[in-house]
Amino acid sequence: MSTHTTGSLVPIRGWQRTYSGKVHDLYRPVPGGAMAGMDTYLIVASDRIAAFDHVVPTFIPDKGEIITRIARWWFDRTGDIAESHYLPGGVPRDIAARGILVRALRMLPYEVMVRGYLTAGAVRSLGTLGTLDAMPYNGAIEVGAKLELPWVGIAEKRRPGCPDIPIPWEEFILRVGESTAERVRVLALNLYRHAHAIALARGLVLADAKLEFGTDMDAGSSRLILADEAFTPDTAHYWLSTDYRAVKSGEVLPTPEALRSFDKDAAQVWLMSPQSGWNAEQGTQPPALPAAVVADIRDRYLRVCEMLTGERWPGR
């Protein structure tokens, strides 16, 4: 069996690939293997990057290892707030840097969006749709605007290749029940506030984050468990706190250029530019990213990783 890395195929003995997402590949133990019979999965992060619900035909060197390191780091620091599906160790040696072992869950088919600030994408959504996460928004509409209270939105996850669909909170309550909806809201807020404080102490503003939850496979279990990846630049937006202070003090205007986004938005910005010649609304596949953009994205991901973990990336 194999997984995509930077364009090559690497065998993973004892594991069978069952699903490939935009960035991650999911594996189950093969019968007769060392992990056979266990309710575990192996999640392997590739160097692929997604933008506007498309996989960009360009690999970002080391990206899979970077987001895996960040995800592990956050799982280790959020355990007091929420139990996660992460199982330390057990990853085959040849993909140890980009794989994590997790326990099987019954996933809630929703993404939870927690926002502490308005990002460039949120401002675009408000300008186009007049709503934020399918709900009315009455606050200031500018990049970097801090929300009076952290905002929690819900998007319904659909089949692979289809974009997630934001739904109003009232609709979410009707689908999962008021008790589950409230537990999701409270847990997501607690995780975001905890992570925001940690990131800020390291010079980063965690503007928003997408979270996913599941429950144990046991019938009747309702305990919410943090799943997928946590607070990586693929699923969260980061700004430098120095940039944010400059914007808030009035030294610079609140623009996307002033608040540089240290995440996959760097790919989206180029794809929206005239240089790319691409229009996301036409339904065509995005073009390859130029080498300079690839290097910039890699550098931004590495910057977040190094600032959070306090460890220099090899060769930097």
Q: Short summary of the structure?
A:
The protein is an alpha+beta fold.
User: Whole-Å distance between the termini?
Assistant: 33 Å
Give the low-confidence spans: 1-9
How many separate domains make up the residues?
2
Shape: globular
Kindly report the average pLDDT value. Answer: 92
Top CATH class of the largest domain: Alpha Beta
Strand content: 25-35%
Number of separate helices? 7
Please tell me how large the radius of gyration is.
Answer: 19 Å
Structural class by SSE content = alpha+beta
Element pattern in H and E: EEEEEEEHEEEEHEEHHEEEHHH
**CATH superfamily membership of the largest domain:** ATP-grasp fold, B domain
Task: Name the features.
single chain; alpha+beta; Phosphorylase Kinase, domain 1; D-amino Acid Aminotransferase, Chain A, domain 1; seven-stranded antiparallel beta sheet; five-stranded antiparallel beta sheet; disordered N terminus; SAICAR_synthetase_CS
